[in-house]
Design a protein that fits this description.
The chain contains five helices and five strands, in the order βαβαβαβαβα. With 147 residues, it is an alpha/beta fold.
Length: 147
Amino acid sequence: MNAEPVFLYVEDERNDVELLKTALHRQHAGRLQTVADGQEAVDYLSGKAEFADRQTFPMPNLILRDLKMPRMDGFTFLKWLRKESPDHLRLLPVVVMSSSAEPEDVNRAYDLGANCYMTKPVDWQLFRERMKLVGIFWGEHAEVPKL
């Protein structure tokens, strides 16, 4: 594992981005890179345009993402990552974080290759606590593929 794990957070809600940033920073759990939608995530992972500089935009150890987003939703992104992306990207772990607890969404996300599905709590304190635990588990305990 890298000395400092890199988390790519695909989220269009700025408050959620700030909460995760705070939780990871307080825990010293890793570096957070953010993009606002699924298409930006594809561009980031593919190293396109502004994301070509891997010093500034390093490959992530984990992708955290919402399902319901503009341009490319989470399901379409998972399909791209697991079936259409370059081979070396297909192993990247993905944690889906959604406000939906619908069984159809959960099952579909896992069917498309999500490694974990978490329902975002409405309570900000609980959200921050969960994000702290995500950072601890994926940043300190989980072995992830070396890309």
